[in-house]
Amino acid sequence: MPVNQWTMYVIMEDDYQLTTAQIEWASKRKHGLSPSKLKELIKKQNGRCALSGAEMIFEKTHGNPNINTRGCHPLYAAIDHISPSNDAYGFQLVCYDLNDLKGHFPYKVFKEVQLTEAWKHLMKQWRIIAEKSPMNIEALKNVLRD
User: Fold this and answer.
1) What is the pLDDT of residue 70?
2) What are the φ/ψ torsions at residue 12 (nearest 5 degrees)?
3) Is 24 helix (H, G, I), strand (E, B) or coil?
4) Which residues are bridge partners to 106 per DSSP?
5) Closest to 103 (Cα-Cα) out of 77, 84, 118, 82
6) How far from the centroid of its chain's Cα atoms is residue 9's Cα?
7) CA torsion 13→131→114→60, rounded to 10°?
8) Are 49 and 7 within 8 A, CB to CB?
9) Would you list the DSSP string of 65-114?
10) In whole angstroms, what separates CA 8 from the centre of its chain?
């Protein structure tokens, strides 16, 4: 599967079909993005995180802390400003916990961090756990703690 080396998302496949959960997630405007734009982002990324390539979760029961008292699932889809608080660079979809991690870096620093072997290893570990045990919240959180 082709991967863009800068943003790490999987390039859109023409036959990618949105799931019911993805359609519902995208049905309401978020961060000023229309439902059609949100669906376009999901398709463009094949439902995968732009940072890690991990398959994201779109079911609202995993993303609403009012429903799930443990907070949002680490793999829950989040809208990310490519450059924090700057709409000019556009948006991407990323895993909730990775969006939180990215938010602690200035844009230019984050772009440099993404090029390091340590970052690439972290994203590989994240992807492996996401593929093998997507509901193992503690294992996902531990990857970011180590």
Assistant:
1) 67
2) -55, 135
3) helix
4) none
5) 84
6) 9
7) 80
8) no
9) TTTSTT-S-TTBEEEEEEETTEEEEEEEEEEHHHHHHHTTS-HHHHHHHH
10) 11
**Alpha-carbon torsion (41, 117, 139, 142), positive or negative:** negative
Q: What's at 30, amino acid-wise?
A: K
Give how far the C-alpha of residue 139 lies from the chain's centroid of Cα atoms, to the nearest Å. 17
Sorted by sequence, the CB contacts under 8 Å of residue 72 that are 6+ apart come out as 62, 63, 64, 65, 78, 96
Q: Do the bridges between strand 77-83 and strand 86-95 make them parallel or antiparallel, or are there none, so unpaired?
A: antiparallel
pTM score, whole prediction: 0.86
**Hey, what are 23's tokens?**
């359609």
Please report the pLDDT score of residue 8 as a whole number. 47
Both tokens assigned to 9:
């998302």
Amino acid at 121: H
Q: Enumerate residue ranges in the chain where pLDDT < 50.
A: 1-10
What's the N-to-C CA distance of the chain in angstroms?
29
